[in-house]
Amino acid sequence: MADVLSQNEVESLLSALDPSASSGGGSSRPATRNTDFNSQISIYDFKRPERVSKEQMRAFRALHESFSREFGAALSGMLRSIIEVKLISVDQLTYSEFVFSLENPTCFNLLESETLDGHIILDISPSIIFPIIDRLLGGDGHSHGAYPNRALTEIEIRLVSRITGLAIEGIESAWSNLCDWKLRVSQVESNPQLVQIVPPNEVIVLISFEVTMGETRGIINLCIPFNTIEPLSNKLTSDTWSAYKKKSPDLRQQLNLEASVSKSKIAMRVELDNSKLTAG
């Protein structure tokens, strides 16, 4: 039993572990260090790193608010109907979260450019793309509460290319202060889960728009992987997007509006003022 500690040795060890203990009576003050540390701890999710700053997110929002107005005007001119495109959210999330949030099938367009190291995605939900196709083919554009649950045909993809072309022009115009994008559609898919442009945990910026055509509504998503535009991240400042907001109106948008108005049919009625005449 020579290895058993005496009571005095046990108390000495406990005192050494607690430096706040007093040497006289053995009493100690309550420790508050853990409470102070806990109040300063913030939760950080390593699976979803915040790679995009708040200022950059504000720049994304400002750039694409202008895009939504121009794209809505261009769509209205093409479809000869009142189309409203409204920016509803700008978020950063992982690529896998974005893909699994989409409908399947959908209209999943991969955009590429020689000046981009990667792809960006323009996704158009079936709830709005089929009414737009119906409108392009001479219909009223109303889905009547239902739309086909299938992939687009080759003919429909050709028709949709007119819509994606307008969107590409708007995106290039919105980013013209930062870079000269010459975007083109490299691939159109119906199943978004078959396309992996970046690793699943890669951070992307998701810009979502709500498109309204009469009583029909749908979502258009613009997915921009952060590593694709990371070389431009230092340009995404308040100075950049405030300068963009002061740009003169787009000539293409002005011409589209003039062409749309010139073809509009307006019912007019002329009333002549009443007058009294006396007979000879």
From TrEMBL:
GO terms for cellular component: bacterial-type flagellum basal body. GO terms for biological process: bacterial-type flagellum-dependent swarming motility; positive chemotaxis. The keyword Lipid biosynthesis does not apply. Coiled coil: none annotated. The keyword Translocase does not apply. InterPro entries: CheC-like_sf, Flag_FliM. SUPFAM superfamilies: CheC-like. It comes from the Bacteria. Keywords: Cell projection, Chemotaxis, Cilium, Flagellum. One of its GO terms (molecular function) is cytoskeletal motor activity. NCBIfam families: fliM_switch. PANTHER family: FLAGELLAR MOTOR SWITCH PROTEIN FLIM, YOP PROTEINS TRANSLOCATION PROTEIN Q. This is Flagellar motor switch protein FliM. The lineage of its organism: Bacteria, Pseudomonadati, Planctomycetota, Planctomycetia, Planctomycetales. The gene is fliM.
